[in-house]
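#lab-general

N.A. 3:47 PM
ok so I finally got the sequence cleaned up, no stray characters, all 581 residues accounted for. can someone with queue access submit it? mine expired

B.Y. 3:52 PM
send it over

N.A. 3:53 PM
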Amino acid sequence: MRVRIDPNSLFSRLLPKAFIEAPIPVAFTFVLSPPISDSAISSPNYTFKGSRQAPHTMEDHHKMGYLGATSYVVGNVIGSGIFITPASILRFANSSGLSLLIWLGCAFIAILGSICYIELGTSIREAGCDFAYICYVKWHSIAFAFMWVSVLMTYPATIAIISETFGQYLIEGLRQVYDIDDYWAPIAQKLFGFSLLWLVTWMNFFSLNKFAARFQIMATFAKLASCALIIFTGFYFYLFKGWNEGLSEPMKHSNTNLGDLVMAFYGGLWAFSGWDILNYGAGEISKPKKNMPLALLSGILLVTVVYLSINISYFIVLDVDTIKSSNAVAALFSQKTLGAFAYAIPFLIGVLLVGSLNSNLFSGSRYMFAAAKQGHLPTCFSCVNAENDSPRVAVFAQSALAMAISFVGDLDALIGYVMFGFWAQRLFTLVALLLIRHKRIPVHPEAIRMPLWVIYVFLGVTVVLVIIPIVQEFQVTAMGIFLCFIGFGFYFLFITPEKLPPVLVLLNEKCLLLSAIVFDALPDLKNSGSTQIVTSDSQQALLGSRASQSRLSSDESVPDLHSDEKNIMIRNGSSSGLRMW
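B.Y. 4:20 PM
back already:
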């Protein structure tokens, strides 16, 4: 059948005039919910079609028990973070003993946060995590501002951190074979990191999902093998060789500056990201009120044991100054302990970082794509390639932003950028939860209620993690604050009004046309529960009176890797309070 788009509708602003004036054959399909973070996708309760998790029932013998839920927590939390942040934490703590205490503190914060997010996830059963929770209390402008920060800073900075760390590990591995001058090492590090980034970008251009799924198995093996090899090697040298390089005076020269300590906590909390995995599978866990808190507590304690064991192994073999000198600590560790097999750990961690980079680029680009489909970003970012459904413009934009952000600061600063935005959003999410509790706003009838004191304690910790960096490390928080204010401005200038200024409509059309030509991609348009993809063979056909449309597959998968940000936004067209471009 043929339909004509209403030129007065908000949906019409997604298209150039030629599209609006032409009758378009429409293939109606189910709404494709944009993929969320890998933690959510790995949950057995996640449903791909529709933006809500439909509650469903199943017999207890089909549900996860305590051990299954615990394994989900452990598998999702342990990721690339433990191989990226130990040196960063030590640089701020300045002593081995204090850095180990910070790791313990991060575990405590993760336990508090996971308990609070159990209540959020079971009360507000909409995909989108923090974005959905903030929108639930009608704070659409705040949700939009943090969506803006995530698109422009959080995801690109995460991608930049992983690519830079890959470059460092590769350089340290090559130094075992070649003599690399210290002057050229940072340049080579960036070049290697950028090369990997563009390779992964090319992979995402063609949606090599089968390859990514197979590579995920390798990445998981690399993660487990690296952790085991470091722990057993370190304790072997302690028990049988008597080494104790960094633990002889554990609290000597400890740093007590609050700003530096918060930055150290940022590094540890980066490594503990992913504790909200059970949010997405509450309905799949037997006796959730009993098993969910126990699984979270046990899982995070197991992760803490692994993280502390790895750090203690580092301190057994390496002194404090050596660890502080390079973010590729595991490579330095292997050089001193494994002899001819010293390349093994850098290689394994390199494989893990490639998988983690692919996962974060996939999630970040789909986040941008989802925001553009909802009209929160220019239409060009909703363009997909008709053959493989890859959102190429969003993939390219995330990679380009990551390269630009990598020049803004070193790895410690990049982690600060990411975690400040992350915890600032968490602050508003917790306030929204307290508002729901105190105003008795209706939520899901099967919500799991947690003690109020836990929420208040976690809120207090979150306030400290947000306020102290603003006061003492403003250069790290300035970018996030600036982007938040820009997001607020864009919301009230361009999202709230019924009509956009003509110049922006024209700019949107030109960017859409340029993106269609350069990336061989066309807009995937969503309205009133239908998903549409415009396809054409030429620029003339694109702007002509007719265009054909084909269906976008609704089955996309996210590589099941640890993702360090969980605030992917998916909104149902019928429930969103935000207007469209």
